[in-house]
Amino acid sequence: ELARISRHSREDQGVAADVRTPGYRQLAELMPLAPATGAALLAVDGVTNPQNLGMLIRSAAAGGSTGIVLPRRGGCDICPLVIKASAGTVFRAPLLRCDGLPEALAALRDCGWRISILDGHARASLFDHLDARARVFVLGGETAGVGAAVRELADESLRIPMANGVESLNVAVTAALVAFRARLAR
To answer: What pLDDT score was predicted for residue 20?
Structure first.
């Protein structure tokens, strides 16, 4: 019976619990979500590795992100591995669920949010202008980056300047840099 409830019989260790997550909401419940000065949402597009998602949530929560937009389609769901990798911050982090990311970003944009995608080939740096505009920073998946539908909605593309020929960073490291950048802007 426990294996049926947990759906992870190898990981349940004989225990099941119903846990409340006060920061977990539906993005649609908060619409229209008018942005406050300096507000920063992180949106996840195509992140499929549970450890990466968990560490991303931990990084975003540590940096004081306004919220983390998690689409139901095209990515990893909250599971025991995400919880473990987040070191429990998934229970405190402001998680905002949506069905599809392109639709959610279009709605946020209509409310006044600026859509900023992270792209290693962008000309502008994440750190060029530390203004306090409310932004949704979109972080792409481990392999393909930000998808085409999301890319079309972007108001700007930003890169993280890197030395020594390094081409990319882990998505959780990127989330930390973005979250703390937004904090500096405030």
So the answer is: 72
